[in-house]
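Regression test case RT-17, inverse folding.

Input:
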C-alpha cells in the first residue's frame, strides 16, 4: 500500500468516527429529551394519584359508617338497576375468591 492510500484510509476512518460521534450525540440528546418528557408525564400522574388519595383520606376522616351507609342507600335508590347488576357482579367475584 502506498502512503497516499494509508492517508486516505486514516482520513476516511476519522470522518466516520466524527460522524458516529455526531450521531451518538444526537441520540443522547433525543433520549434525554424523551426521558425528561416521560418524567414530566409521570410526575403529573403521580400528582393526580396523590390528590385522589388525599381526597379519599379526607372522606374517611370526615365521614362515619352511618354517613357512608346513607350515601350508599341514596345511590341504590337513584339507580336500582345498576345497583342490582353491581351487587350480582360483586357477589360473583367474592364467590370466585372464596371458592378457589
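Golden output:
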Amino acid at each position: 500500500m502506498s502512503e497516499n492510500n494509508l492517508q486516505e484510509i486514516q482520513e476516511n476512518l476519522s470522518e466516520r468516527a466524527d460522524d458516529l460521534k455526531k450521531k451518538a450525540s444526537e441520540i443522547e440528546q433525543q433520549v434525554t429529551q424523551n426521558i425528561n418528557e416521560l418524567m414530566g408525564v409521570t410526575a403529573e400522574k403521580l400528582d393526580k394519584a396523590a390528590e385522589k388519595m388525599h381526597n379519599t383520606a379526607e372522606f374517611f376522616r370526615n365521614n362515619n359508617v352511618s354517613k357512608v351507609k346513607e350515601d350508599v342507600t341514596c345511590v341504590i335508590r337513584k339507580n336500582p338497576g345498576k345497583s342490582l347488576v353491581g351487587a350480582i357482579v360483586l357477589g360473583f367475584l367474592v364467590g370466585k375468591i372464596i371458592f378457589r
